[in-house]
Structure prediction request, 64 residues.
Amino acid sequence: MTKGTTSMGRRIGKTHTLCRRCGRVTFHIQHGECGACGYPSPKKRGYKWGAKAIRREDYRHWSH
Prediction:
């Protein structure tokens, strides 16, 4: 039951890959769903609590 350095060596698989819709590396391979835009759902993923970040000035510097 080691929780440190030895456990880090076991992390080899990729959980996320490129999303076809938004182009970000947020498409979860096993779940088959994008964490950023919600692809393959026809509706784009978005929440009211995310609007605050978009209103901020430094949002344009984020990789969106």
About this structure: The two ends are 39 Å apart (CA to CA).
